[in-house]
Design goal:
CATH topology of the largest domain: Butyryl-CoA Dehydrogenase, subunit A, domain 3
CATH superfamily of the largest domain: Butyryl-CoA Dehydrogenase, subunit A, domain 3
Helix content: 40-55%
Bound molecules: flavin-adenine dinucleotide
Number of helices: 5
Strand order of the largest sheet: 1-2-6-5
Number of domains: 2
Radius of gyration: 22 Å
Order of helices and strands: EEEEEEEHEEHHHH
CATH architecture of the largest domain: Up-down Bundle
Strand content: 15-25%
Length: about 250
């Protein structure tokens, strides 16, 4: 669906026109990697990547998004208003931008899996400590199976998340493509962390619904991990295609 165009000029430079919504650290970054269509007839093979200095004329940082979570991370749109780029702003080869983006996304998805796993560990820690301190019917709520079974599920999924996360990271570190494993790691971690945060809120009862105890923030922060770097639906598309392509 990309519409941002980079038109090559006679002197080899480019003029970029278009926009991109939802850019993490826009307005803060010194440099941006911008993807744009250099050859509209070639589909994904007509996309190129450019390294853009934040001070480039024509690069406009749009309004800040007022987000549900991850509120300590700034997010803005970017507009490219006839932004002029020198020929050497091109990253790698013309027409290879999509390939570079996909390779970058594999690493990004492993990072998302790591973020979710960390959020899950934090949520479980809060829930565990609370369940040992809070008493109901004469004993710590941790002693009720209804509570300890939630902690057991959290622990099981966190261990699985860590295994898959490190497996994907180890494969990436060899230099091999790891698209399926990276997508699986992110899908597993982001999905189960949302449930873990909900269960942690439940263990804290009414206090879980309060900002004071921090678990509601973990839920809001993790929701992004089900959306950014490819939604969980798109991850299933990628994993499903990889499964069908396997011999
Ligand atoms: C806080 C935040 C920070 C971000 N930072 C960056 C950034 O730094 N750089 C960057 O490039 N992007 C960034 N993004 C963008 C992010 O990667 C996209 O929002 C995300 O990939 C989803 O794309 P979309 O918003 O266009 O949703 P859409 O593609 O419009 O999807 C809408 C819904 O339709 C579903 N859907 C779409 N296609 C299919 C399909 N084929 N099968 C099934 N379901 C489908 C999706 O899963 C989703 O549920 C950021 C987003 C957020 C929210």
């Amino acid at each position: 669906g990309m519409r941002t165009r980079a038109k090559k000029q006679a002197d080899g430079s480019y003029v970029v026109k278009g926009s991109k919504a939802w850019i993490t650290n826009a307005g803060i970054a010194d440099y941006y990697v911008v993807m744009a269509i250099t050859d509209p007839d070639k589909g994904a093979k007509g996309i190129s990547a450019f390294l853009v200095d934040a001070g480039t004329p024509g690069l406009i940082v749009d309004k800040e998004e007022d987000k549900m979570g991850m509120r300590s991370s700034d997010t803005h749109g970017l507009t490219f208003d006839d932004m002029k780029l020198p020929a050497d702003a091109l990253l790698g080869e013309e027409g290879k931008g999509f390939v570079y983006a996909m390779e970058g996304l594999d690493g990004g998805r492993i990072s998302c899996a790591a973020i979710s796993t960390g959020i899950a560990e934090h949520a479980m820690q809060i829930a565990k400590e609370y369940s040992l301190q809070c008493t109901a019917f004469g004993k710590p709520i941790a002693k009720f199976q209804g509570v300890s079974f939630k902690l057991a599920n959290m622990s099981m999924y966190i261990d699985a998340m860590n295994l898959m996360l490190y497996d994907a990271a180890a494969l990436k570190a060899t230099g091999a493509r790891c698209s399926k494993l990276a997508a699986e790691a992110k899908l597993l971690a982001s999905t189960h962390t949302t449930q873990i945060c909900l269960d942690a809120i439940q263990i804290l009862g009414g206090n879980g619904y309060s900002k004071e105890y921090n678990v509601e923030r973990l839920l809001r922060d993790n929701k992004l991990m089900e959306i950014g770097e490819g939604t969980n639906e798109i991850l299933r598309v990628i994993i499903g295609s990889a499964v069908l392509a396997e011999k």
